[in-house]
Every structure is written in C-alpha cells, then in structure tokens.
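Section 5.1 Outputs to date
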Amino acid sequence: MALGPTQRLKDGIVAVETMTRFALAVLALASGVYTYLGVRSILDGSPTGVFFAAIIYSVSVSVGIYAFWSYMARFYPHITSRTGKTAMLFVMAAGAAMILAMSSWLNAAALAGSAAVEQHLSETVEGYSSDLDRAHQNVLAVQSLLPDIQRASERFSQLAAVERQSGSLTGTTGSGSVVQLLAQMSGQMKSLEANINGSREQVAELFEQGQKRLETMRSLISAPGLIEPRADQFSTEAVALTGVISSLSQTSIAPSIRRAADDLSLGFIAPVADGSDANLINRQDQVMATVRASVAAQSKALAKAADEILARPPIVERRFVPLSSAEAVLHYAQDFIPAWAGAISIDLLPGVMVFILAVAHASIRKQEEQLPYAEGITAAELMRALEIQRALSASGVDIETAAAKAEKRAEDDGEPVKDGESAEEPNNITNLDPRSRGRDRLHDDR
C-alpha cells in the first residue's frame, strides 16, 4: 500500500505528458499570433514585405517559446542538486526575460494597442482644449479693460461738454484750450475702445473655429473602425488647430494697450492757453494741469492692467506626436495592466506547469527514499534477484554464509552493509549469471 501514492503520481505524470505538450503548443501558437499582430503595427514598407517579416518573426517566437519550455519541463524536475537547481532557475529567469522582451509587449500591443492609441489621442485633445481656452481667456482679459476705458472716455467727453456750455472748469463758456484738451483725451480713449471692440469679432470667430476642430477630433476618437486612418486624420486636424491657437494668441491687443497707455502720459501735449486775460489764462493752465494729472493716473492704471495680462505665461505651441500601438501600450502601460497581465500570462504560464512537474517528481523521490529496498524494487528487479539466487545455489555458494562474511568484513572496515548489497565481489556475482555461464561453456567448447 505504501507504493500507491508514488505510483499514482508516476501514472499522473505519464497521463498529462501529452496534455502538457499540447498546452505548450497552443500557448506558443497563441503568443505567435498576437506577436504577428503586434509586429505588423510597427513595421513599415510594402504590404508583402511586412507580411512575410511579421510571419517569420512570429514563427520564430512560437518555436522559441515551445522549445524553451519543453527543455525546462524535461530537465528541471529531474535535477536534485542545489547548484543545478539554482543554475536552472537562473536560466529560466533569463529565458523569461527574453520572452517578455521579444513577445509579451507585442502581445499587449495586439490586445490593447488600439485602446492605447485612442487614449493618446484623447489626452492630446485635452491638451489642445486647454491651450485654446487659455488663449481665449488671455484675449478676453484685454476686453475686461473696456469698461474702464469707456468710463474715462465718457468722463473727458462730459467735462468738455460742461465746459463748453457753462464754463464750470474755467469760469468762461466756449470752446477754448481746455475743451480742446478734454475732447482730445476723450478721442484717444474712444480710439482704444474701438480697437478692443474691433478685435472682439475676430476673437469670437477664431474661438469658434477652434471649437469645431476639437469637436472633429473628439468624433475621430470615438468613431468605429481601424485606428490608423483615424489617427492620420486626427493629425491633420491637430495641425489646423495649432494654427488657430497661434492666430488667437496673436490677436491679443494687450501690447497695443500697453503702448497706448504710455502715449497717454508721455505723449501728453497740452494746448497753449488762449484766454483773453491773465486770470483766464491762469485758470486754463490750472485746469490743464489737473487734466494732465488725471491722464497720468489713467495711463498708469491702464499700463498696470496691460502688464498683468502680458505677464501671463504664453501659450507654448503644442506638437502632436503620433504613436504606434506598440509605443502607446508602453507609454500608457499603467492604464492597461489587465492587457499586460494577459499578454505576459500567455508566455509565462508554461513555467507554472514546469514547477508542478518539479514538485511532483520531488514528491516521488521523497516517497521512494522512505520505502524499504524490498518494497521499492520492481518486478523485473525481483526476477533478476531470483535468477542470481538460483545461479548462486547452482554454484554451491551458501548465500547466508556469504552474507555473514560480507557483514563481518563491513564491520571491520567500519562501513555497514546496505540492504540489497551482495555479499560477494561484483565480478563474482556477474560471473554467476546463467547467461554468462552459458557463454563461458560455449567458449570452452570452442
């Protein structure tokens, strides 16, 4: 009964040998097929050349995987020494690394390459959308100055009208130097207002174009069909959108506002007082000095607001870099862990079978070592032993006496006799083989 578990393990190993080979062949074939799909996505050239190159590479991968794991399954379970097992484990690790390098990442590209490319396109769209929004906000920031400019323009215009009608500033009605100066300042402010309003329509048109480009790019990402033609069209749209964003950034009139603000203060030219008497001239000079101070304050405020807009980080031109399915899978590997796990499992699953066989063989060896010699011999070995016994008896050798002598000799030498060891010298027992004796008699007859 002690031999039962060992024999069942041996029978099981024999029974699964065919299944093991079949499983290795199927896994190697599956890896080769997905490797073929992955290789085709990264090769360039004529369709015929790409086809044969991919076929040759995938076949080489399949054969290499099948041969490698076949060798490991054949030899590793039977190695018992620690040094041998360590060496074989090192070889297995090196082979697994080579398989990952030449096959697994291509398998992952075949399994999740299209999804990875779509994710790359999606993230690119988000980047372009952010750039478009920032460029639009920078332009709209200039338009936020419009209310201040309108108020300043209206204030100068109202002061000019009041001075013209009632002379509330100088005490004298009419269109004198003060009215001219106030009208001049109001005109400059209205010129800035006109420039801002003029750019608003162009900004709205460019932003609408950018939104349409983004909508087209998003539709290409979610559209059905092969990813390659969609990626090519996406690249075209990306180039066009880059041009729209650049145009939108150049539309900003913040630099023009900054220069105009400097001109208000530095280019201030007050007309000569044209009063009819000294008192009127003095009052006009005082009013114009007040206007000059107001213009300087307005210029400083506009310059500060324009500087804040100009201090915003510029929109760096974004360049779309297309990726193949294999490159995209590597770049976004952390987002496609299930696909990578499946691709790697196809190639390394045979290693699990190798370890199962190693454990089974180790268990068999351990159980056989615990069995007495008499319970561990096979029927053939038993028949051989009986044949030797008959040969010894026929030669007149007393087996018990020979065994006792062998034990005494072993005790004298300090080495015990193991079960199953013969009491006579090996050459003597060999000579007692009936077949050897028959050959000896035939030789003597000759």
